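can u pls check wat happens w/ S-adenosylmethionine
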Amino acid sequence: MRLTRGLNVRRWYADNLIEFKESPQKGLGVFAKTNIPRGTRVIAETALLEVNIETVMNIVPAFERLPPSQQESYLELHGYAGDLFKSIVELETGKSWQDLPELHRKVLAIYAANTFGSVYFLGSRLNHSCIPNVNFVYNPLLKQETFHVIRDIVAGEELTVMYINGTKRTRRQRQQELSRWGFQCTCPACEDTVQGRQKEEKRVALFALSEELAANAASRTDESYRTRLLIRERMVAIQKSEGLVNRELRFGYYEAAKCCLKLNEHKMLLSWTEKMLEVDRYCIGEDHPEYKQLQLIAGSMKKAIDASQPIPENAMEYFKERQAEECVIM
Ligand SMILES: C[S@@+](CC[C@H](N)C(=O)[O-])C[C@H]1O[C@@H](n2cnc3c(N)ncnc32)[C@H](O)[C@@H]1O
C-alpha cells in the first residue's frame, strides 16, 4: 500500500520515532521504531482535512477545496460509515446513502472513521485500545494536534489512543460506542481471558464508584466532601494500577483537589495539584497553555501554603471551574 503520495510524509514520520505497519486484524497502525520514553511528543501535525462540522454537508466541499496531493493522501485513509452516521447523512442530504456518488460516500466514510475533530495524516492511523499508551490534544499555540506517549514504550510496540471516554465504562458499554468504528475491541482489557476478565472487574468497580459519586454529587456537607475524596482516592488507585494514566486520571486528581479545597486541607490540595501537573506534563507537554496555567497556579499555591497565607485567588478560581473529563474528542 502506498502511504507517501502527495505530502512530505510529515517530517518523515515524526523524525523516525514511528512508522506505519499492518496491525493484525486492525488494518494499518502506528508502531514505535525505537524505545520512546513517557512524555515524548511523537506527532505534532496540522489537519489534513478540517471541517466546520455543524452539518455533515460541509465534509465533501471541504474535501473538494483541498489541493490534489492532499485529496490523494486523504483518499488513502481507511473508511467506515456506521448506520448512525449514514442515517445522519441521509437526513441532512435528503438522499439515500446508496444514491450518493461513490466518491462522496468514500469521503464521508473516511471522515467518519478518522476524525479527531479534524482528520490527520499520521494521527488518524492510530488504532484504539481501552488501555491507550498515547494521549492526543490540540495545542492552540502550535495550532497543531499533538500526540504524546503516556507510558515508556518499547521498540516495536503499537501506539494506541482511546477513541471514547472509556476508563469508567464496562466492556459492554465501551463496545456499544466502538461499534461506530465497525470493530470488536480485543485489547487486553476486552479479551476473553483470565487477565481480561480481571481487568474487566476493575472497570466494573470504577463504574460502580462513579455511580456512587453521581449519587453523592449534590451534597455540600463536609462529610460528603470526605466521602467523595475517599471514592476519588480509590478510583485513581485502580486507574493507576491498570495503567489508565491518560487525562481521565488527571480529572480524578482535579476532583480530589476540589474536595480538599472545600475541606481546607491545603497541603493535600497542593499534593493533588502537583499530581495533575505531572499528568499534564506527559500528556500535553510543557508548552501547552493549560500546562503553563496550572504550573503558575501550583507555584503560587505552594508559596502561599509555605508562608501560611490564604490560597491565592487564581487557584480558588481554577478549582471552581467545571473541567471537562473528556480525554477523547473523536
Ligand atoms: C482511525 S482509523 C485507524 C487506522 C486504521 N487501522 C487504518 O488502517 O488506517 C480507525 C479504524 O481502524 C480500525 N481499528 C481501530 N482500532 C481497532 C482495534 N482496536 N481493533 C480492530 N480494528 C481497529 C477500525 O477499522 C476503525 O474503523
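DSSP finds twelve helices and seven strands in the chain.
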